[in-house]
Amino acid sequence: MRVVLVGAGGMGKAWLATILADPAVELAGVVDLDLDVARSALADAGVPDLPVGTDAVELARQTGADAVVNVTVPQAHHPVTTAALFAGYPVLGEKPVAPTVAQALSLVAASEASGKPFVVSQSRRYNAHAELFQAQARALGDLGSLATEFFKAPHFGGFREEMDHVLLVDMAIHQFDLARFLLEAEPVSVYCEEFNPPWSWYAGAASAAAVFEMSSGARYTFTGSWCAPGLETSWNGAWRLSGAAGSATWDGDHDPVVEGAQAGPAADPGEGIAGSLAAFTRFLADGTPLWGEVHDNVLSLAMVEAAVESAATGARVRLDDVLDRAHAQAVADERRDDVLAVLKGWGSARAALRR
């Protein structure tokens, strides 16, 4: 599969190396608004002669690419992905699917209208320990609660330290997405509080606590901080799961620890973005089901948007309300008639996401 990579910044370089290392994928070229950045990334990777450009569709056509990998900043996810889909290219994109749920629903409709798939890389889902934890969750029968503790103290500098809702918006989507995967259930509502400890070096709230009601009746609890020095958790978080047949814990970096019903071995899904890329390749080759297809992924972003709304209002927020408002906004904002027709054809956003 020949791919054009869009975005040659820090994350783009990580994807570039991953693409070059995958024998099932060939890098056709790199797109960046700054051509010198694209050339430098290719030179650093040892492939300086590959073509570069500033337009993803144009370079994909010139190079005979089969698909586009979109690693641009979140604000560019919607226009870059939409253009690629309607030019006939499947797209694999970085999280979040888009900056807002309204834009995410527009991308769902664009995928339907164009007939081309769009997959979001939730890279922390691709983890052999997480796969085993999900198998263990199934072995424990009816599930009552899942909890994540996430405590880190990174000094990023730059835009993250100035963001509003920095923990919820920039990080928690990974844990929220994993919770959906582990519980095999969808969010119904959330109550969330966020705050900033007095020693925080972030302008926005860097700590949060949220409780989600899930469609299975289970509760998912997230507690975390990005300004918690000492005894830090894994970047994947520390997890505890309680079910009818026992309990399991997972430190985020090793196999889960179980007391109760034991699961058998689980498949290795690959690691991080390499796992995402391999799953995308298999999906295009033979339709192998994968996690993160856009219809599915929107609900992970909706969990973030609902948690932010709850923290701002102090009220419990229903996910259906978030989706309905986003749907109305997507209809109001849409400028493509074919995408608008799909959006208007949905009975509800929630129904459109069940495929």
From TrEMBL:
One GO molecular-function entry: nucleotide binding
Domain GFO/IDH/MocA-like oxidoreductase: 159-248
Protein keywords: Oxidoreductase
SUPFAM superfamilies tied to this protein: Glyceraldehyde-3-phosphate dehydrogenase-like, C-terminal domain, NAD(P)-binding Rossmann-fold domains
Coiled coil: none
Protein biosynthesis in keyword set: no
Domain Gfo/Idh/MocA-like oxidoreductase N-terminal: 1-120
Signal peptide interval: none
UniProt keyword DNA-binding present: no
Annotated InterPro entries: Gfo/Idh/MocA-like_OxRdtase_N, Gfo/Idh/MocA_oxidrdct_glycsds, GFO_IDH_MocA-like_dom, NAD(P)-bd_dom_sf
Protein name according to UniProt: Putative dehydrogenase
Naturally occurring in which organism (per UniProt): Kineococcus aurantiacus
Lineage, opening ranks: Bacteria, Bacillati, Actinomycetota, Actinomycetes, Kineosporiales
